[in-house]
Amino acid sequence: MHSLSVSGQPSLLCQLEWKSLNQVPDSHIWPPDLLHHHPTSNIIPPSSSMPIIDLTAADSVLIPLVGRACETWGAFQITGHGVPLRLLDLVEAQTCRLFSLPSAHKLRAQRCPSGGVTGYGPALISSFFSKLFWSEGFTIVGSAQEDARKLWPNCFNDFCSAMEEYSKGMKDLSRRVIVLMLRSLGLSEEDIDEVGPLRGHDEVEPVLQLNYYPPCPEPDRTMGLADHTDSSLITIIHQSSCVTGLQLLHHDESDNPRPQWVEVPPILGALVVNVGDLFHIISNGRFHTVIHRAVVDRTWSRISVAYFCGPLAHFKVGPIQKIVDPNHGPAYPGITWPKYLSLKKKLHNETLASIRLPLAAKRQDDEKKVL
Ligand SMILES: C=C1C[C@]23C[C@@]1(O)CC[C@H]2[C@@]12CCC[C@@](C)(C(=O)O1)[C@H]2[C@@H]3C(=O)O
Ligand SMILES: O=C(O)CCC(=O)C(=O)O
Ligand SMILES: [Fe+2]
After folding, report:
1. Could you tell me if the ipTM is greater than 0.95?
2. 142 Cα–ligand 2 center, Å
């Protein structure tokens, strides 16, 4: 069923017709050591399920809640966010419409194999794995027009206008959430205008990742989207309301020393916020960039739409000086989003560690040794 590409990876050109399969092909069977790369059981201690924050509360209530969620979970769900259910349904319906197209149509908008980002294809991180994901993706950077035209030459407008309206809603919402996060780090409104990562935010090209996870006859032997952190400042995810799939790796501070995978329960109308690598950097390591993955279901397909909020391309993101402890110094250097993404393409989950700076105290010791 699969041909092999030059890299030895099964080629996407032979896209799976998921429905025709009653068994998972070898190309999609993940060896247990990769599947269980972190301890797996989905035990969710009721005392520590991920925070759900209602954004209709006053900022004075929200700021500590958001800060605590970012420090302990690196993720939270938001309700009362003001994005109408109608828009969430619309974007989900258009995403469904895209992935329901015959494979040959979808492949007309295939992501350019030589390093392209936009278009149809497996999630970019799939290149780090020898096995394929049980999913399909579609990445939109900026406008979806060019690719949508390839999919529906005569009727691409509905898709584009839904994605545009959704991106606009997400841009406003991400600004609100990021301000709450920065306030929780002790920054004032004025500090945020001066040093915050949102300067020029209106000009930032929106990045949307549409994900489709078909039903799978052997869900325990395959992977929808393998564990990763997002590179963004934050990611806002809308997931289908009836099917679970998104899981976070959570380190429960209190009793359990081992991290556990925790399901993110779909809540009608709620959105999931993930802290991304760049916010971890800004917060000098205080906010947790959350490792997450998507598993698949035997009976139900699932859709998710992720909005990646990042800074302007030329803007260097580094630990905010005001919150850096002078005794320890910054934990990371300043870096632009494009530079970070290019490192991430090479190093995947090792990217943050690769740029982490030694502690200032240790640096001084080392310098003394050299002298
Ligand atoms: C802005 C981006 C974040 C992303 C890489 C990208 O250039 C466009 C796609 C994004 C995505 C979506 C699925 C998961 C992810 C890890 C991937 O493979 O592609 C993220 C990337 C990321 O956050 O690093
Ligand atoms: O499908 C999901 O819920 C997760 C999607 C995701 O992590 C991503 O697109 O980066
Ligand atoms: Fe993600």
Report:
1. yes
2. 19
pTM of structure: 0.93
Domain assignment of residue 233, yes or no: yes
Look at residues 231, 100, 106, 90 and name the one whose alpha carbon lies nearest to residue 164.
Answer: 90
Specify the residue for token string 């709620």. Answer: 270
**How many separate domains does the chain show?**
1
Is residue 9 included in any domain, yes or no?
no
Question: What residues are labeled active site?
Answer: 302
313-344 pLDDT tens trace = 999 999 999 999 999 999 999 999 999 999 99
Asked whether residue 13 is assigned to any structural domain, the reply reads: no
Ligand 1 within 6 A of 312 CB? no
CATH number at residue 126: 2.60.120.330
CB burial readout 8-41, b (16+ within 10 A) else e: ebbebeebbebeebeebeebbbbeeeebeeeeee
Query: What is the extent of the structural domain holding 328?
Result: 20-370
> Percent of the chain scored above 70 by pLDDT?
88
Residue 248 belongs to a domain: yes
Burial group, residue 84, by CB count within 10 angstroms (0-12, 13-18, 19+): exposed
- Out of 136, 231, 336, mutate this one to test ligand 1's pocket (max ligand atoms within 8 Å of CB): namely 231
Amino acid at 207: V
Residue nearest to atom 8 of ligand 2 (CA): 306
Contact 234/271 with Cβ under 8 angstroms?
no
| Cβ of 139 below 6 Å from ligand 2 | no
